[in-house]
Amino acid sequence: APLGLLGDGAPDGELTGTDEKNDNSHDGDVWWYRGGKWLSITNESVKVQLASHLGNVFLICHGNANSVHEPWIARMAYAALVNGGYSAALAVDWGEGSKSHAAIYPEENSRHIPAAAAESARQLTVAGVNGDTLTICGHSHGGHYAGILAQKMHATRLIGMDSSPIWTHENTPVADRYPHAWDDSSASIVEF
Fold first, then answer.
1. How many CA atoms lie within 13 A of 153 on its CB side?
2. Is residue 110 within 8 Å of residue 181, measured between CB atoms?
3. Residue 24, CB-side half-sphere exposure with 13 Å CA sphere
4. What contacts 83, CB < 8 A, 6 or more positions away?
5. What is the pTM assigned to this prediction?
6. What is the mean pLDDT of the chain?
């Protein structure tokens, strides 16, 4: 979709994620989309700046064979800020795990999701993100990641977009699999 569809004031050119060559991101790291760039909330000065933007927060979870570097994630973050009324847009990165095996073996990559989601929950909590104002949206394997993270954070809203089928999560502990991670204990509102 052309960037003009995202709303007035969209940056010129294609929105991109972080600089993949200079990225030291690890599974579970959380990134804040600000000013057209991704900033790691593990950085203390970024965490301090983020604290003043913690109204309604939108968090994006990518799927298998992706990372926070995907342009669609930046576009979604931008749209959440401009058109969604969110005060902050965040994304998790579990690119190490999601790309650890060939994309034709998504069930192998799914085993990284529970530990990465636990690390994301830890980082979000330390940064002061409150589940009462948190919407978590996940695509494909990210839908399962979102479900686990929503349970840990007691999120307000959980959205799954084309979540991956259960057979692709055979290496994930049963308690963390869909549909177990997608019930009324996950969030106040669950949509998929």
1. 33
2. no
3. 4
4. 6, 7
5. 0.80
6. 77
Cβ-count burial of 10 within 10 angstroms (0-12 exposed, 13-18 middle, 19+ buried)?
A: middle
Side-by-side strand order, sheet with 187-191: 37-40, 29-34, 88-93, 57-61, 134-139, 155-161, 187-191
Picking from 184, 76, 61, 188, the residue whose alpha carbon sits closest to that of residue 133 is 188
Q: Give the type of residue at 142.
A: G
Contact 147, 186 (CB under 8 A): yes
pLDDT top residue among 192 and 125 = 125
Residue 163: closest CA among 136, 189, 142, 184 = 142
Q: Give yes or no for a contact between 136 and 154, defined as CB atoms under 8 angstroms apart.
A: no
Residue 160's pLDDT is what?
Answer: 81
The pLDDT of residue 131: 93
Buried b (16+ CB within 10 A) or exposed e, 105-125: ebbbbbbbbbebbebbbebbe
The full 3-state SS of the chain, as one line of letters, equals CCHHHHCCCCCCCCCCCCCHHHCCCCCCEEEEEECCEEEECCCHHHHHHHHHHCCCEEEEECCCCCCCCCHHHHHHHHHHHHCCCCCEEEEEECHHHHCCCCCCCHHHHHHHHHHHHHHHHHHHHHCCCCHHHEEEEEECHHHHHHHHHHHHHCEEEEEEECCCCHHHHCCCCHHHCCCCCCCCCCEEEEEC
